[in-house]
Amino acid sequence: YVPPRVRKSQEILDDKKREELGRLKKMVNGLINRLSEPNLPSISGQMEDLYMANSRKDMNETLTDILMNACVTAVAMPSRLMMEHVLLVSILHHNVGVEVGAHFLEAVVKKFDEICKSDAEGKECENLLALIAHLYNFHVVHSLLIFDILKELVSAFTEKEIELILFLLKNVGFSLRKDDALALKELITEAQRKANTAEKKFQDQTRVRFMLETMLALRNNDMRKIPGYDPEPVERLRKLQRTLVRSSGKETQLRVSLESLVSADRVGRWWIVGSSWSGAPMIDDTNKKTQQKLHIGKVSSKIMELARKQRMNTDIRRSIFCVLMTSEDFLDAFEKLLG
């Protein structure tokens, strides 16, 4: 039972919070709407001030929602606009804290995973993939995630996936080659194997051939073979990023896998220091069933009573306690624990 007086004060607090969040959303929205390359320094400065004045949680959620609404649309977004939005996230990620980039990255990857599994007709998948690619270009995330996504796309290997592979390689291919040439080589080998086994599946082979040619051009570091490849816009924005970021990019890069991001709600977020976590147990119940129980034979009631007094409140704790108490020496205890 909640007394009416307490209930009323709680409602007043909720209304106040809602009003504050509405005001914050309006301010962030106004800054994002004015975002462009020339005024990025002033916009990022004002966003940093907002982070200092408001709770990180509210700011992260507000910024992510606004950016997702602006960038994830059914029509293809202009590449330059995408880059400017991601560059803002990158600057805040390096200057304010890694939780800024981590929150945005998790939302983007989860949405990408969800939309790719549904057969959406629009360009949302490409837009989300462009966001992930530029988060890598601007040193928010490590190449590990990009390789994970490419492996997933290669393993599916339908026409839609081939288009996404080409799109991603065009945006980040040469950076991947620089970061991990061996992983790229392995990916190319796997793609060639898939293409050979899937020859009969596709009516039109030209797209598959074009994808393989693109991959070989990347392996041979031949930029001329990739039509429409232009590294200049990314390089220009990277120079701007270096002038605005107060720490080096490599130390704040998130080295996180696709699986970790998709299952973050279930297993927690180890890549954010001090992040609170609540939800399902980190180890599934199915794992508990497969755990071997320690074989300890019969132990006296006196030892079991001692175990109870020492608050050994699970079978596994009681078993280990009894083994330690009844062993002759450390070697005997070791053998029993292994058994």
Automatic annotation (TrEMBL):
Major place of residence: nucleus
GO MF entries: RNA binding
Q: Which InterPro entries match?
A: ARM-type_fold (IPR016024), CWC22_splicing_factor (IPR050781), MIF4G-like_typ-3 (IPR003890)
The yes or no answer to whether the keyword rRNA processing is present is no
Ranges for domain MIF4G? 25-222
- Coiled-coil annotated spans: 181-208
- Keywords, in A-Z order: Coiled coil, Nucleus
Nucleus in keyword set = yes
| Biological process, per Gene Ontology | ribosomal small subunit biogenesis
Q: Where in the cell is it found?
A: Nucleus, Nucleolus
What SUPFAM superfamilies would the database entry show? ARM repeat (SSF48371)
Q: Name one GO cellular component term.
A: nucleolus
A Pfam family assignment: MIF4G
Identify the domain of life: Eukaryota
Task: Give the family per the record.
Answer: Belongs to the CWC22 family.
Q: What does this protein do?
A: Plays a role in targeting PPP1CA to the nucleolus.
Tell me, how does this one assemble?
May interact with EIF4A1, EIF4A2 and EIF4A3. Interacts with PPP1CA and PPP1CC.
- Identification of the protein by name: Nucleolar MIF4G domain-containing protein 1
- Origin organism is Phaetusa simplex (large-billed tern)
